[in-house]
Amino acid sequence: MHKTHVLAADVGGTNIRAAWVDGLGNLGDERRIQADLSRDDVCEDDVIHILTDFLHAYLSDYPDIQAVGLGFPGFFLGDTGVLLASPNLPRLKNMPLAKKLSEELSLSVFVQNDALCAALGEHRFGAGKNTDNLLHITLGTGVGGGLILQQQAYTGESGMAMEFGHVRVQTQATARCCGCGGSGCVEAYASSTAIQTIYAELTGKTLMTKVIYQRACEGDAVARGVFERAGGYLGQAIAEAVKLLDIHTITISGGLIGAWDILHPPLMKALNQHVISPLKGKINVFPSTLNDQAGILGAAAMALAGCD
Ligand SMILES: [Zn+2]
Questions:
Q1: Which residues form the domain of 232?
Q2: pTM for this entry
Q3: How far away, in angstroms, is 177 Cα from ligand 1 center?
Q4: Residue 157 domain-assigned (yes or no)
């Protein structure tokens, strides 16, 4: 029986979550604090202070914890824990985040991009278990991706591998603009933000994604159409990734998988329409089995691997 416990944390734009996790993926004593880490003026010291205070308080209740794993929104240099840049935190550049936290907490600390953490979690504990290669997609306010190749996290040369949300699925003049400065990106159609924006444009009503989904289930054809189009574009984007990677297992986590029953059929239809013919029917796409814990469990997986 694996008894190692680690502390895992997941940093979002407005809150930070932490929990202990054991070697089997059991998770407990989840704590959460509000912290606005998406403002332009947040500096290195702010990030270190906020994280150290929160994690230190947690660790003081669990003196047997051996390592800390952290998912953070940004681009990291390989597995060094050096944050090269973070889109929402422009003042952070080339910051040795893992090393600084490790000094503050006097423990080994492992840090990686949040979407890549979700991929690691799904690969070790979730729907991507027992696969050598996995493409994991996160569908939340944005669309992210993480890649596991030969059982290892693949970061790319500057931590930007699998910027899946910015795969272009629409090239017409009417293509929707994306936050990255481009247009026609899958994120502009298949994120929670996009679903809300498109539905509001079509109906004049600004509703939460969950409510739009409920309406779709109750027969609102406009609502259903927004989700179906999102599913179709996701399938198209996955097909492009599969052409490059020849990966057969795809997993998806994030709030939008609550609409899986509507998203999945058009997704698979578009995927099989757009992949090269020898791969038609061979690509499996699964919803996450970890609910909203994929990221935190992936952060734990890094820390557990560091304890082995
Ligand atoms: Zn984009």
A1: 127-287
A2: 0.94
A3: 8
A4: yes
Distance (Å) from CA 165 to ligand 1 centroid: 6
Residue 244 has pLDDT above 70, yes or no: yes
Instruction: Output the pLDDT for position 308.
Output: 73
Q: How far is the CA of 142 from the centre of ligand 1 (A)?
A: 10
SS3 track for the chain = CCCCEEEEEEECCCEEEEEEEECCCCEEEEEEEECCCCCCCCCHHHHHHHHHHHHHHHHHCCCCCCEEEEEECCEECCCCCEEEECCCCCCCEEEEHHHHHHHHHCCEEEEEEHHHHHHHHHHHHCCCCCCCCEEEEEECCCEEEEEEECCEEECCCCCCCCCHHHCECCCCCCCCECCCCCECECHHHHCHHHHHHHHHHHHCCCCCHHHHHHHHHCCCHHHHHHHHHHHHHHHHHHHHHHHHHCCCEEEEECHHHHHHHHHHHHHHHHHHHHCCHHHCCCCEEEECCCCCCHHHHHHHHHHHHHHC
Ligand 1 ion: Cβ-proximal residues, 5 Å cutoff? 166, 178, 180, 182, 185
Whether residue 87 is found in the same domain as residue 106: yes
Return the pLDDT at 1.
Answer: 41
Domain assignment present for 121 = no
Query: Is 175 among the domain residues?
Result: yes
Give distance in angstroms: CA of 295 to centre of ligand 1.
22
